[in-house]
Amino acid sequence: MLGPPGAGKGTQGKRIAQHYGIPQISTGDILREHVKQATGLGLIAKDIMARGELVPDELLYDMVAERLRRADCERGFILDGFPRTPAQAGWLDAFLENEFFEKAAKCLPIVIRIDVDYNELLLRLTGRRTCPVCGRIYNVHLQPPRVDELCDVDGSKLVTRNDDREEVIRERLLAYEQQTRPVAEYYERKGRLIPVDGDLPVDEVSGTLFREIATHSGC
Ligand code: AP5
């Protein structure tokens, strides 16, 4: 699942994951966990993420490979935020071909890009709040919790992401334009890109995504 910061990859990825009973794998979430645990990778990624830049490609590959080899990925998975550079896309194609699709060569992954207007992205990112316990995503402007700053599901105090500050958001959007847009072009050339209008309300975007997945998932 491709799309700029704030496009709704996490929001929609969680819904699709729940519907199909497969994991949503967000490289951003995994990296944030490494930062929290102060692992070797986390210590390197911390400042890079705080500046809104991309973590170097070669630091991602072992982390993603280890996650995709876990048993819960056998029936399928949703990748949210990976690949983000043409080099990552090439690595992923080779990995999937070697480890997943050897026996089902026709079963290619579905590549969805969620497109959203720039000003709407700023509104979504500055208003985002996340539950640190269950991961549910809210927005103080667009999808507020029932009680201010508290999660509807478990009552935890919602948190603001460290990189959702306006100056960092601009860097993240720039990184998307310069480094990730070419990934969409890579898949477009292969005839595999499905662009989706993400400017619509959450339920409408979900409806489109489920329809597109149903249309393209035959293998
Ligand atoms: P990551 O965690 O992947 O962040 P991101 O790509 O910037 O995407 P976001 O999580 O900000 O947005 P989203 O599209 O998931 O939107 P959401 O659903 O939350 O990456 C963070 C950092 O990690 C990177 O900057 C980089 O440093 C590093 N990194 C990660 N992967 C990497 C990789 N592969 N290579 C190198 N570095 C990597 O929604 C946003 C808000 O909008 C929410 O408040 C939500 O409620 C609201 N919203 C969603 N949909 C709608 C809608 N339809 N209408 C109204 N509001 C909506």
Q: Could you explain the architecture of this structure?
A:
Helix 2 (27-37) packs across helix 3 (40-51). The strands form three sheets. A two-stranded parallel sheet has the order 1-2. A two-stranded parallel ribbon has the order 3-6. Strands 4-5 form a two-stranded antiparallel ribbon. With 219 residues, the protein is mostly helical. It is 50% helix and 10% strand. The two termini are 19 Å apart. The protein has helices spanning 9-20, 27-37, 40-51, 57-68, 86-99, 118-127, 166-189, 202-216; strands at residues 24-26, 78-80, 111-115, 128-130, 137-139, 193-197. It has a single domain, classed as Rossmann fold. The chain contains eight helices and six strands; from the N terminus they run αβαααβαβαββαβα. A hairpin with a 6-residue loop joins strand 4 and strand 5 (137-139). The structure holds BIS(adenosine)-5'-pentaphosphate. BIS(adenosine)-5'-pentaphosphate (AP5) binds at residues 3, 5-11, 26-28, 31, 48-49, 52-55, 60, 81-82, 84, 88, 124, 127-128, 137-139, 142-143, 163, 172, 198, 201-202, 205.
